[in-house]
Amino acid sequence: MSIIQLSKRQMEILDIVKRNQPITSEHIADKVNLTRATLRPDLTILTMLGILEARPKVGYYYSGKSLISIMGSFIKNINIMDVKSVPVVVSEDTTIYDAIVTMFLEDTGNIYVQSKGFLSGIISRKDFIKITLGNQDIKSMPVAMIMTRMPNIIYCEADESIYDAAVKIIEHQVDSLPIVEKTQDEKGMERLKILGKISKTTITSAMVNIGNE
């Protein structure tokens, strides 16, 4: 799969550098019968992409990096906090009925549950479907009765990339992950503070934005 498509001239420049490195821009221009000014944008693009390396008074080198590896490195450097969305959060004593209403009003696939300001659980649409198929009184039963609790909550921390998040989403077959910050409560116990949400949709939107740019 080709992620970045180089122009015919850029491919020709790349081939010349591979065969004659190190080579100056003057010599490259001579080989393609063009002026240095004409080649300057192409050399700038190839250098910025990391495919070529330029050394003063020496010339251009081929870095050895492929387009795929360059794009992979780029994606691994996009922090999830730059693309995060706002999570839908309810308290543990919220009724299942109210949580279902909230889920549809907010058009979300997961609801995060917190207690005393810390993440305590996650509820998915599948959880709601299971409980509503029974004869339970969802207007009085709290979400704490059906939510997934720690240590079964998969999450991301603020310093992770969208690549890291995508790997976790695929490995654990979930639609979204809470972004958290580890902290401590008044008893010194480790807790998770919700900072945001990363989902399949936000990752896909980030990829579309990269393509547009």
Automatic annotation (TrEMBL):
| Keywords from the UniProt entry | CBS domain
Q: Which domain of life is it from?
A: Bacteria
Q: Which SUPFAM superfamilies match?
A: CBS-domain pair, Winged helix' DNA-binding domain
> Under which name does UniProt file this protein?
Helix-turn-helix transcriptional regulator
Location of the CBS domain: 81-138, 147-213
SMART domains for the chain: CBS
The protein's matches in Pfam families, at most eight in alphabetical order, are given as:
CBS (PF00571), HTH_11 (PF08279)
Q: Which InterPro entries match?
A: CBS_dom, CBS_dom_sf, Diverse_CBS-Domain, HTH_11, UCP026546_HTH-CBS, WH-like_DNA-bd_sf, WH_DNA-bd_sf
